[in-house]
Amino acid sequence: MWAFQFPQTPQLHSHFYTNSAARLPPKPPPIFSVAVNPTTTSSPSNNNKLIQSLCKQGNLKQALEVLSNEPNPTQHTYELLLLSCSHHNSLSDAENVHCHLVDNGFDQDPFLATKLINMYTHLDSIDHARQVFDKTRRRTIYVWNALFRALTLAGCGEEVLDLYRQMNRSGMGSDRFSYTYVLKACVSSYGVVSLLKHGKEIHASILRHGYDRIVHIMTTLIDMYARFGCVTYASFVFNEMAVKNVVSWSAMIACYARNGMAFEALELFHEMMTETQDSSPNSVTMVSVLQACAALAALEQGKLIHGYILRRGLDSILPVVSALVTMYARCGKLELSQRVFDQMDKRDVVSWNSLISSYGVHGFGQKAIQIFKEMIYHGVSPSSISFVSVLGACSHAGLIEEGKMLFQSMRKEHMIGPSVEHYACMVDLLGRANKLEEAAKIIEDMRIEPGPKVWGSLLGSCRIHCNVELAERASKRLFELEPTNAGNYVLLADVYAAANMWDEVKSVKKLLEARGLQKVPGRSWIEVKRKMYSFVSVDEFNPQAEQLHALLIKLSTEMKEKGYVPQTKVVLYDLDTQEKERIVLGHSEKLAVAFGLINTSKGETIRITKNLRLCEDCHSFTKFISKFGNKEILVRDVNRFHHFHDGVCSCGDYW
DNA sequence: TTAGGGTTAG
Q1: A308: Cβ contacts below 8 Å, ≥ 6 apart
Q2: Looking at the predicted structure, is the pLDDT value of residue A16 above 50?
Q3: Phi and psi dihedrals of A525, rounded to 5?
Q4: Where are the alpha helices (DSSP H) in A214-348?
Q5: Whole-prediction pTM value?
Q6: Residue A528: phi, psi to the nearest 5?
Q7: Which is it for the CA torsion A315, A320, A323, A325, positive or negative?
Q8: Beta bridge partners of A536
Q9: Distance, Å, A322 CA → B6 C1'
Q10: What is the per-residue pLDDT across A125-166, written as a single tens digit (0 to 9) for each?
């Protein structure tokens, strides 16, 4: 048969070929659709009208039956049929309509080619979309754009860029739609090569062709730079925009929020509220703003934002409510997360995942598992992220057997293949529990390539349990996979320092320097009376610093009398014990604790956030303060929460 | 005929 044919579709024509004998021999392929279109000269038959009406009513089955008796379907009839196949998510019907269309001489119609590509994109059949494109000789800008969209959604960014160059060579210029798809393609690549360079070239082309006044394109550009972590470029584009709307503001706020610049995100939000009259924030804006509050653990800010959401009636929008659940949990108010969740009329898998991870990050592993089961009981199927959340919760709580069983159930019961993230959770779970060999075995047996997250989990566990040999193995891979991540070098140096291997510590530090990298400085912050105060280990600019240091020396002396022994193995310098003690006493979280002791009233909980993992010494020191200073102290480190109360931490010293 | 920002984890 000359007509378009798909592989693996043996029953393809059975539905339509009841009169197949009358159709043979096959017609030669038409060259130009308009010239051979059998219906351009005649008005649509009654059958055509009936098919169109059935499609509009959503009755695809009957529409297809009528189609089998209609010798002259029109372009519009096919258009509605293809749309209907998309709505019904039916690939087999789609293929049948496609074959029918080809048999009736429409295979070179660029309008229908566009519709076919869009339909196959919707049905996740990228190969089919590509075949339609390849067979279409007259490629309008719509046809090109449809394929760009298809490939971008499928993560084939590099292929889009190749085609884009091909399109330009063919003399076809880009329009505003091509630019948005191609910019998105730069960040949608599954390949390992960064396409940022290409994104910048496209940016230049946009400027050359005067498309920089199109808000859609400039917003996509902001988003592209945001996803590459190029905040300066993104804010430059944003500031240069002559006209901004709610989407461009939201894109810039999201850019700050996801790139560790939560202060800036909140600042920009306030600017948006005060400086714009016609761009009032919407639900999407609020999600990013809540993310920023969560990142900073800015509870008071978060509560104000919650009030605004209620006043604006945005509290029924699921992503907003899920972001509220997460915000309260990350601000240390788990009970408020639960309350917000309980008040939801409708919940989706994201809402459940938010609650599961909320309990997880606070160390309530069993509760997280219970919620996971409740979710399934309520008929909501777990997603891949549900498993990341619940496995993470098991890891924080040391629930090894439960974690293993859940991991097994992924494939068996829920048909979800484990991804790199799930393996990383399992390695973390076993590694933390000092089952390092078992963790290494998991990596060996992985069916997919273990990425930096997996090796990073193993290295983190080696640091906790001081396993030099395995740490060297993991870091060797990590230095290849992500040579610019300073954290990995620091972890390896930590392992060497704990083993008193000072020459090795020195050489890791040299490697770090040679590669132009720096250790991320420890930073802690605290919200007191709606204001945020930030501390770094050596903070000469804080007017209270002297007072804070004096208080810390006094507290340290007192706590030593009560049994506190400074843990100095975290110091990466070969110094004497006294010097090491001085260094750990200046850690940012201790400064924040001291600030909290001075500036909070009796009975008020101290809430601190830290950008790195809490060190052993600060952990031990804070336990003593909670007992002898009679203070509740809540610390959120980069991984989880620590509730210090009466000399005990909720993590059970397992973090 | 086609388009831009957000949702959970690590």
Answers
A1: A286
A2: no
A3: -140, 160
A4: 215-227, 231-240, 246-258, 262-275, 283-296, 299-311, 318-330, 334-342
A5: 0.85
A6: -125, 125
A7: positive
A8: A523
A9: 11
A10: 999 999 999 999 999 999 999 999 999 999 999 999 999 999
Residue with minimal CA–C1' distance to B6 is A284
A159's enclosing H/E stretch is: helix A157-169
- Rounded CA gap, A124 and A142, in Å? 19
The phi and psi torsions of A282 (rounded to 5 degrees) equal: -120, -170
Strand locations in A383-510 (E): none
* Alpha-carbon torsion (A555, A557, A561, A564), positive or negative: positive
Q: What is the C-alpha to C-alpha distance for residues A11 and A304, in angstroms, rounded to an integer? A: 61
With vertex at residue A411, the alpha carbon angle to CA A410 and CA A413, rounded to the nearest 5 degrees, is 70
Question: Which strand B bases fall within 7 angstroms of a protein CB?
Answer: 1-10
Which DSSP string corresponds to A99-113? HHHHHTT-TT-HHHH
User: Which residue is listed with tokens 């919760």?
Assistant: A393
Note the pLDDT tens digit of each residue in A37-82: 344 434 557 899 999 999 999 999 999 999 999 999 999 999 999 9
* Distance measured from the CA of protein residue A257 to the C1' of nucleotide B5, in angstroms: 12
- Nearest nucleotide, CA A349 to C1': B8
pLDDT digits (tens, 9 = 90+) for A426-436: 999 999 888 99
Nearest CA-CA partner of A175 in A138, A149, A137, A155: A149
Whole-number CA gyration radius for chain A? 30
At position A258, the amino acid (one-letter code) is: R
**Distance from CA(A474) to C1'(B2), angstroms, rounded:** 47
